[in-house]
Amino acid sequence: MCPNLDIVVPKLLEERSWAAPAGGGAALPDLGLGGVLRVGMPLSPMLAKMQSSYGAMLETFKGRAFLAEHKYDGMRAQVHVVLGAAGGRREVRIFSRNSEDITDRFSDVAEAILESTPAGKDAIFDGEVCAVDRSKAPAQLLPFQSLARRPKGPTGRSATGERAAEVCVYLFDCLYHGGESMVKAPYRARREFLRSAAALSPRPGFVEYAEGDVIEGDGAEEAVEAAMLRSIERGCEGLMCKLLDGPASAYEPSKRSDSWVKLKKDYIDGIADSLDLVPIGAWYGNGRKAGWYSPVLLAAYDPETDTFQSVCRVMSGFTDEMYTKLTLFYAGKVLAGKQKKRRKPEAAEGAGSGDSGDKGEPTGRLLPRKPPNYITNESCRVWFDACEVWTIRGAEFSLSPTHMCAQGRIACAAGRGLALRFPRFLHERPDKTTAEATTPAQILELYTKQHGAEKPAAAAGYDDDDDDIL
To answer: Do 257 and 322 share a structural domain?
Structure first.
């Protein structure tokens, strides 16, 4: 279909002989407008199906490589770079998801695209326009409402005098470039070309690539959950998971395809709030982490019983600097690389006595044995004095025979406690004491909300993209 009357009408006027069908009336001639793409004419965008769990999404891809791309809370934008006639100045047209020309509304985006793309090449890109605060580095993503308040006419100030929000376009696909359609190419190839200098030179805060993680091989569920947490921390609303290879990864205009799956944080089972937990023990690191403590056992504090009840092991989110810092903090020295082979944990050496380590730092933060108020079925190689608080975020809570948080308070869960799945270290909380850590009662409340709340309609494939209301 060619929706552009500036193209269709001249073709109709050129064609003088129309064949009359047997049933009467007039048949439209072949206008020679076949082909999927024409620069300057909007193409109905490819859409994603919704899933409400990581497992269902992974089942869709059946072990094939995919991209876990940030889902930005903005407005879908199809960006056309149109060559001027006879070498004239290029122009940019921007179309909404519903094929509405919104170039005037986002003329600043159009100018940024002209500056970011090579001269002499026409192109069609797919992306998302978002409101941002460019005073932050990287540009801070703002809520969708900031974009919705942007004037519908040429950018500048609204009728009330309010200055229009700054915007950035995050591009994730290249459908056409230099006279060649790319919709049949695998998504991996389209994405790699988009990220090449031949297609685009990003401008931070104005024109950027959509962020994402390539996920393939073992550990896919843990990797996609970690990608979800990074997306949330960035200010996005979830993930767009896209098949990378093969014919099924081609761009399918106007189709809601199985090769694109949307995971929004509001629809995922139990995306957890951040927790403030207490490190109470650890194991010796292996491989690259030899000489450090990893993973670390974390616990909630119960002020009613003065107990620390384990919630999870954490080994994601740490920098090398943080690993070194925490090992020095508790052991007073960097551990031997093969420490994991020792039969007797170093915790017993001078533990609790305030003796100094090799560098004159106290080792009193290591305990000789697990204290009776550490409630867990884990068997750490070393036990820590409970003396600091870390902020942790994970994917969801589950029942566990190992972690004993809120054990005895959960209906139909005899002998089991609550555990946080796929935890990730965010930062330390030096402003908090262990008595101010998250409590088992608070975690139980989060677990109850996770399993007792009504599931939104999106679980059945409902699509509520915000840009429909713009």
So the answer is: no
Collapsing DSSP to helix, strand or coil, 280 comes out as strand
150 DSSP 8-state letter: S
184 is an active site residue? no
Average pLDDT, the chain: 81
Pair (141, 204) in one structural domain: yes
Q: Which domain holds residue 439?
A: 275-452
Label residue 245 by pLDDT band (50, 70, 90): very high
Judge if 190 and 84 occupy the same domain.
yes
Contact 115, 63 (CB under 8 A): no
What's the CATH code of the domain at 432?
Answer: 2.40.50.140
Same domain, 163 and 60: yes
With respect to residue 417, please indicate whether it lies within any of the assigned structural domains: yes
pLDDT digit string (tens) for 284-338?
Answer: 998 888 889 999 999 999 999 999 999 999 998 888 889 999 999 998 876 765 3
Residue 106 and residue 129: Cα distance in Å, rounded? Answer: 9
Residues 279, 342, single domain; the answer is yes
How far is the C-alpha of 290 from the C-alpha of 287, rounded, in Å? 5
CA-to-CA distance for 463 and 443, rounded, in angstroms? 31
Mean pLDDT to the nearest integer, 176-201:
95
- Beta bridge pairs of residue 13: none
Helix axes 220-234, 54-61, angle to 10 degrees: 120
Q: Which residue among 71, 242, 262, 289 is the active-site one?
A: 71
Alpha helices in 374-438 (DSSP H): none
Q: Is pLDDT above 70 for 157?
A: no
Are 340 and 228 in a shared domain? no
Taking the complete model, does pTM exceed 0.70, yes or no?
Answer: no
* CA distances for 256 relative to 94, 253, 269, 353, angstroms: 22, 9, 23, 65
Length of the chain, in residues: 470
